[in-house]
Amino acid sequence: MLKALPGFREMALEILDSLVALRHDLHAHPELAFQEHRTAGRILERLGAVPNLKVRGGVGGTGVVAVLNDGRDGPCLALRADMDALPIQEAVDRPYASTVSGVMHACGHDGHVACLVGAAMLLSKCAADVPGRVKFIFQPAEEDGGGASRMIEQGALDNPKVDAIWGLHGWTELPLGFVGVAPGPVMAGTRSFDMTFRGKGGHAAYPHKGSDVIVAASRFVTDLQALRTRRVDPVEPAVVSICQVQAGRTYNVLPEVCHVKGTIRALNTATLDSLWDQVRYLAQTIATSLDAEVSSELADAYPPVVNHAGCTALVEAVGRSLLGDSQVVRTPPTMGGEDFAYYGQRIPAAFYRLGLRPTGCVSIPPIHNPCYDFNDDAIPYGVAMHCGLAVRFLDDPPAILCG
Fold first, then answer.
1. pLDDT value of position 189
2. Please, how many CA atoms are within 13 Å of residue 282, restricted to the half-sphere of its CB?
3. Which among 57, 195, 308, 358 is placed 20 to 30 Å from 160, CA to CA?
4. pLDDT tens column, 249-296
5. Distance from C-alpha of 337 to C-alpha of 105, rounded to nearest angstrom
């Protein structure tokens, strides 16, 4: 049994070249949600060479699950990394830039994979002293499609049953070597929707003979903002955004259809559900007043990420031990969504942020930006945090789960 945390960051530095090479390879060959076949293959290749691991692929479509000390009794924790890329054209000509037109790792999932592969490599070396089991979850489709939910449905948290789970995300607003975390709601639940207005089109010179769906959609977009300011408690975090309006093809024809895409976000599920009801009611009211029809459909619906108090406290304790007291900070919630939330609905969980911003830099390109890149220097910190959480949790699970 490991009574104290070994020098995991120093150990990670010894394998850093290998992990950086893996990240760069994944960055050069990004894959969208549920298409991560090559990515999964590279992970399986790496983990297949690691002793003391039981590895299987094809979980949740393209996901990979590996278990350390599978045949041993005792508690089990999980560590999770996401694998998918985004439909964004990379804007920087790096040596390892994306070779796939219109697709890039703009959220750092290539770095997340590298950190988790490194943790599997290091924990395998001390497997005999790890008093329990560690499950490494490489998940598809975080950005689109709810891959976490599909992996759970296909047993990622079972056989062996997982007692608690942790995940990290590279964070450009935090300095390198820092970790940010907080208990309670830390990321928003989301409802991304498609709204379709339909009416009677016609000649632009005679609008009175038809029903103008563009006017209906325009009113909807404008009036929607009043929901946030007049229908939600002012102290309750919430966001309503319209991100696409599409209709018509020419200058003098009123179209029959107008498509609107948007998202609503909140840290409270009740607020989120109430907003979605009001969005649909507003659209229907406006459509009816302008002699049009409207239909709505949810593209996705992620719950909020809510950190378990004990799991959060463990992140803070491990971070202070490995990085230093001043390197662990409480970070405020964000309105971004994360399907890590599905794990937290089933078992105690904590999602924390790993600093990426180099010392001396005021800012670096943020996630979901065509110039973004995961900072390779952050990989040893991510590996160390994964390993430290595993060792500390397995040493005394009840103390964490009852925290």
1. 97
2. 20
3. 308
4. 999 999 999 999 999 999 999 999 999 999 999 999 999 999 999 999
5. 17
Q: Is the pTM of this model over 0.85?
A: yes
DSSP string, 254-268: E-SEEEEEEEEEESS
- Reported as type and span, the H/E element at residue 119 is helix 109-125
List the beta bridge partners of residue 192.
Answer: 263, 300
Q: Which CATH architecture group holds 8-186+304-401?
A: 3-Layer(aba) Sandwich (3.40)
Q: Which residue has the tokens 């609905």?
A: 345
If phi > 0 it is left, if psi is from -120 to 50 it is alpha, else beta; for residue 259 that is beta
Q: What fold is seen in the domain 189-302?
A: Alpha-Beta Plaits (3.30.70)
DSSP string, 39-64: HHHHHHHHHHTSTTEEEEEEETTTEE
CATH 3.40.630.10 domain span(s) along the chain: 8-186+304-401
d(CA 9, CA 240): 41
The DSSP secondary-structure symbol of 3 reads: S
User: Which tokens belong to 211?
Assistant: 């029903």
Instruction: List C-alpha distances in Å: 285 to 224, 258, 291, 292.
Output: 12, 16, 10, 10
Question: What residue ranges of the chain are covered by domains with CATH 3.30.70.360?
Answer: 189-302
